[in-house]
Amino acid sequence: MRFLFKTDYDQDIRLFKHGGQVFWYGLLMALLLAAPFLVDEYVMSQLHFICIYSIVGLGLMLLVGFTGQISLGHAAFLAVGAYTEALLQAKGVPVFISLPCAALFSAAAGLIVGLPALRLKGIYLAIATLAFNVIVEEVITRWEGLTGGNSGLHLKPVEIFGVTLDGDAGFFYLCLGLTVLSILALMNLLRSPTGRAFVAIRDSEISASCMGVNLAKYKTLSFAISAALTGIGGALYAHKVSFISPEQFTLLQSIELVTIVILGGVGFLHGAVLGAAFLIVLPQLISLAKDYLPANVGGTGLQAVVFGLVLIGFIIFEPLGLYGRWLKVRTWFELFPFYRKGMFRRQKSYMKSERLR
Amino acid sequence: MSQVLQLLLAGVAQGCVYALVALGFVLIYKATETVNFAQGDLMMLGGFFALTSSVILGWPYWATIVFAVAAMAAVGMLIERLVLRPVLGQPAFTVVMITIGVGYVLRGVVTMIPGWGTDTYTLPTPFSEGVFQIGEVIFAVQQVAVIGMTAALCAVLYLFFRFSKLGVAMQATSQNQLAAAYMGIPVRRVNMMIWGLSAGVAAFAGILLAPATFVHSNMGFIGLKAFPAAVVGGFGSVPGAIVGGLIIGLVEAFAGRYMPEGFKDVAAYVVVLVVLLLRPSGIFGETAQKKV
Fold this sequence. Notes:
The complex is a heterodimer of chains A (357) and B (292). Chain A is an all-alpha fold and 357 residues long. Chain A has 14 helices and 4 strands. Chain A is globular, with a radius of gyration of 21 Å. Chain B is an all-alpha fold and 292 residues long. In chain B, a hairpin with a 2-residue loop joins strand 1 (131-134) and strand 2 (137-140). Chain B is globular and about 60 Å long.
């Protein structure tokens, strides 16, 4: 077991708490950098998706896990990012300008959604974001002059300084780099006063505003940052699938994005990455299992059933998600004979009414 | 003029279905503060139960309704007992996600059951085809029947909540769970019954909707249209759900006629955003303030 002797206040906010973390994250990074030489094309493609969904998951995690706001409309931000990237690329804008533009446009959309969020809470906010998602989807479908409507838009591979990233490796490094940058940015954000304000809002809006947190400012900011990250994810997604159309950005997509956060573990940055990996790997596992099932069970409905059951199972049996499970396992080993069953138990509270607010 | 009346009729008929689904949301929300995203899928399952009894078993229409409503009430209670009771008291968002999970499972399971599958079916009704005319307005018997049956169901529900012991207990539970428990009401069992009631209403809505959209595994997505209805009316008000449903139905009917193409599908959501901006808790919503 490791004991951390704190001799300095800076130790509390250091990015890496001890040498072990530096070693293990370094090893992970080295493995990921070597991945294009180690695994085949198919696995690389899945790694692309994991990186892209991680970025989106990180954005959503900031909003849901750290600011406590609900969004069922993140597919709309994904769409804004993807379409901005597609349109700018078609105009010949280089990627290091179009990618920030995608983030900016999404952030602007996030600001628009964030404004009603100042007055709305809980389920009303969820429905407002849901309505936003449906409206954006419909606008994309109908605005054929700009977006091509249902026939969609095609994208070319990313090009940086005249080098075309059409291979798996180049695009993977781009995605990986952006994922790592997003993680570092969020880690830094969360240890800054802004991040602390977000967490305060999540824990109690009333006490946060009593402590001088400007609710309007920080809620909108959280929506904007979250939307910006989702927009970057959307731009990369557009490049990855190289064809975008409105039906990729429906409400179901939004719900899938939220499940990244839930399955990974609400309130942990690790959770966003783990949840994204899980969401990408799950369909592969299901298609493997299909061969062993009778024909009517192994049809199109199987994925929905498994997905739903996994979601329900996680919420009932492991509300802290995948990362929470890992924390429990780690604590079990660290404390070896002394782990108690109730150590991570959520304090039971009486149902808090949302109607009184 | 006759065109407006015609649209009015179509809007009200469609609004009645939204109202019934919204009623399901509101019943559950009022009692347990859970927003049930699976309400549309419960409706879909109700439609399939009706299909089974009417097409496969060949039962008459009234028996079909009774069977589907009873079967769905059982399913609703089962869902509450198995899935929702373990997460009682957890944050609202967690519970919402669990109902979304339930929706996924229902949608998937329906495609796996032999005889149901992914196909689209028609549910025969005794008033499928006929039309009659008063003045210049043409009434489809189907639409009139939907409106009449919705009105009848609302009357029954009103009498139930007003005069039956269980109905009053449900009202008490939805107003204050703790106080209801002190008065000797078995709150958990009442919650279960409310899920059953709400699922039964969903099945009824599914039967009424079936002639318009047919029965298939994705018909539950109409539940998403019923959200705006519930929100517009105020998510905790039973009359609000009815009024909200009618408003959404009418807005859709008129938007489809007088606005450019595409507006029909988003009209409901535009209305909901406007209502949320002006009056965040809906038209009939409670606006209580928390005292610190």
